Amino acid sequence: MKDNRNVLVVDDEPSVRDIIARGLGLHGYTCASAASSQEAISLMEAHPPAVLISDINMPGQSGFWLLQQIKNRWPDTSVIMLTAIDETQSAVNCLTQGADDYIVKPINLKELAFAVSRALEKRRLILENREYQYNLEALVEQRTGDLRKTLVQLNLSYDMTLQALIASLDAREHQTGNHSQRVSMYAILLAKGVGITSKNLGSISKGAMLHDIGKIGIPDSILLKPGKLTAEEWKLMRLHPEIGYNILKGIEFLEPSLGIVLNHHERFDGDGYPAGLRGRDIPMEARVFSIVDTFDTMTSDRPYHKAVSFEMAFHEVTRCAGTQFDPDVVACFTRIPGRQWQDIRRFTLG
Fold first, then answer.
1. pTM exceeding 0.90
2. What is the pLDDT of residues 276-325, one digit of tens each?
3. How far is it, in rounded angstroms, from Cα 170 to Cα 177?
4. pLDDT per residue over 141-184, tens digit each?
5. I need a surface site. Which of 67, 129, 183, 306 has the fewest CB within 10 A?
6. Domain boundaries, the chain
7. What gap in Å lies between CA 68 and CA 123, rounded to an integer?
């Protein structure tokens, strides 16, 4: 794969552009610069770089607008946002819309160079992952071992590894439309609603993103079957929580996330799998996740069904309170305004 070390710096202040370009040049990067979002788009159309660094607050179209344009038209370009305002909400907005990192001014050039290096490594992993999608079925056993080794070796940089892996898993199940990313955001929203503390939200996010990793061991003939599964096929399909658990167990930083991976198909009435857990014996994070996973499945097109409306999905979740779902968690789910779920869906569909 060709090593692309081109960087586009977008800032309305000439001195900032010059400092960044000179600093990154010392690290071996080739930098171009633009004074506005519109000028950046023109340069992107001629020569898309590997990384774009953009200020948020600029005259004319803002950095937020530019970020949306880049992710829609050049999704392989990594984006690092700059701002003079250290606000958590600004960071959340950037990352939610697809930015790879967020740097606060005044800029520390060493920190910025490290952020560019991280972004390039993440980009490399995603592009490499895309290449071998065509041979996914033949590489299942080999990749299972490789994934475990990669996750262990990249303990300190697990975010980029997980995102590449998740892109791979979602690409396999055609028509899922970034399912793993979306249910992760749904799960965080509902987890906050039921009072789960901030320190546990990271493990819930990772568990949600990785919940279906065990499907790597399920044949396409079953996973993508448009009709009903036979009893034998269901038996194999129901193995995926345990397969996922066995893949990830022993990886220290993922241990807190295994409750979702193993238990996301358990039911409040005890009729779920793999262990038939009942009620509050099911970990809270799995009780939260099972609702948003089912909600997204119902509202997304799949090989075996067409999407239903949000209203119908809300009704069905409510109907299943006390049987499939924890009624207390369902009550929290229904109190969250529908527009918040809609906003997340729009973000993940682009």
1. no
2. 999 999 999 999 999 999 999 999 887 667 889 999 999 999 999 999 99
3. 7
4. 666 667 666 665 655 465 666 666 676 676 666 445 578 888 99
5. 306
6. 6-122, 137-349
7. 18
Backbone angles phi, psi at 78, to 5 degrees: -80, 145
Neighbour-count burial for 175-208, b at 16+ CB within 10 Å, e otherwise: ebbbbbbbbbbbbbbbbbbbebeeeeeebbbbbb
122 vs 113: CA distance, rounded Å: 14
3-state secondary structure the chain: CCCCCEEEEECCCHHHHHHHHHHHHCCCCEEEEECCHHHHHHHHHHCCCCEEEEECCCCCCCHHHHHHHHHHHCCCCEEEEEECCCCHHHHHHHHHCCCCEEEECCCCHHHHHHHHHHHHHHHHHHHHHHHHHHHCHHHHHHHHHHHHHHHHHCHHHHHHHHHHHHHHHHHHCCCCCCHHHHHHHHHHHHHHHCCCCHHHHHHHHHHHHCCCHHHHHCCHHHHCCCCCCCHHHHHHHCCHHHHHHHHHCCCHHHHHHHHHHHHCCCCCCCCCCCCCCCHHHCCHHHHHHHHHHHHHHHCCCECCECCCCHHHHHHHHHHCECCCECHHHHHHHHHCCHHHHHHHHHHHHC
One-letter amino acid for residue 273 of the chain: Y
Q: Domain 6-122: give its CATH architecture.
A: 3-Layer(aba) Sandwich (3.40)
From the list 41, 50, 47, the residue with the least C-alpha distance to 10 is: 41
In our burial notation (b when 16+ CB lie closer than 10 A, e otherwise), range 123-133 reads: bbbbeebeeee
The class level of CATH for 137-349 reads mainly alpha
